[in-house]
Amino acid sequence: MQWRRRRLFSPGQLLRQAGSVVLYGLLTRWRYMPQWLISARSLLGLVAGSEGMGCIGFPKHPVIEITSRCNLNCIHCHAASSEGSPDEMSFDEMRRVLRELAAQDEFKMIVFSGGEPLVRDDLVELCDYARRLGFWVVIASNGTLLTADLARRLRRAGVCGIAIGLDGDCPEIHDSIRGVEGAFERAIQGCVVARQAGLVLQINTTLMQQNVARLPQIMRLGEHLGAKVALCYFAAACGRGAENQGILLTPEQYEAALRQIADIQSGCRLIIEPTCAPTYWAMLGASNWLSSLLVRLVGPAVFHGCVAGTGLFYVRADGEALACPFLPLSAGSVLTHGVSRIWQEGGLFEQLRSFKTRPESPNCSACHFFRVCGGCRARAFLSSDDAFGDDPFCFLSP
């Protein structure tokens, strides 16, 4: 197989991505924004092909659960990872799906997730294959299995970055959430060896009752470890989150956490992006008349809010395609229907894209900030079985 040139930004994508950072910096009074822009060249792989900021990373990109197996037992795991399933895609099936994903021009970066992707023996080979297809490769891991040798092998295979889950700033909190003693220390070591190998480091934090009070400390720890980006997820009522609903935040805690993230961002070197929280961009716009004007005029070009159906193509370990990992509605199997048919023509994706332009829910249809928010479609479904209803956590609606 011949090497293909890395897929890069188009000039328009690069301009919109830089614009999203500048607008975000202005809205949050982010003092490190100029410094981040100057050093952003090393982060191009993490955001390759993206056109701004969305509710789950930088759209548009595919994510593949390359396994449902995991060495931890996290209380919030949306995939309810376990010892694995006989229905997991084989190496050849994975390569077939990767080829089909590479045929979609808008997909330039790909994330290998799980489960825990590092438990898969052929991970390095899969990364190398994706790199040969032209993808920028990012791995989402709990970090506990990452050794210095494996980190170097992944870097040589073309992996540009790794996102490591960090749910606490101390062993007591992190280990209790992750379900295994010693997980915190091994995750920290994983962060260290990742950076030593030249991988761009991102941290992923899932906020819940157990750790929301430690949000500032977790972000400072990520900054100290040399991370460039932090995604702050919110535990959802799916997977193990449905079994442990006592961990979920209340709407009031959700709002407080978003306002705290904006405050932290102003003095933090990390670029912090709330995930499962499209309300964040609307909240920034609603803070004063100037912010409102900026977000309503410029925001829709760079802030995309909920990207279910528009900015994410999620493939589970058995080949089932989802529009969002937290929205448990199947769009079909990529092994049966193919990637292009589901992404370009799939009924669920078409419905979600239609909603993005013509909202039907009462609050969203009347909101000035709908185009930069759109409400969380997963939270709407998990609360009412209606993916096109109102987001019950929206605190900006009347």
What does this entry show, briefly?
This protein has helices spanning 11-28, 33-38, 91-102, 123-132, 148-156, 171-178, 183-196, 215-224, 240-243, 251-265, 279-285, 289-297, 299-302, 334-337, 339-345, 347-357, 362-365, 377-384, and strands spanning 61-65, 109-113, 136-141, 159-165, 200-207, 229-234, 271-274, 312-315, 321-322. With 398 residues, it is an alpha/beta fold.
Protein described:
The protein has 398 residues and is α/β, with parallel strands linked by helices. It has 18 helices and 9 strands. Strands 7-6-5-4-3-2-1-8-9 form a 9-stranded mixed beta sheet. The radius of gyration is 19 Å and the shape is globular. The model has no long low-confidence stretch (mean pLDDT 92).
The count of DSSP E runs of length 2 or more, i.e. the number of strands, is 9
Profile the largest sheet: 9 strands, mixed
Mean pLDDT: 92
With helices defined by DSSP (H or I, 4 residues minimum), what is the helix count?
18
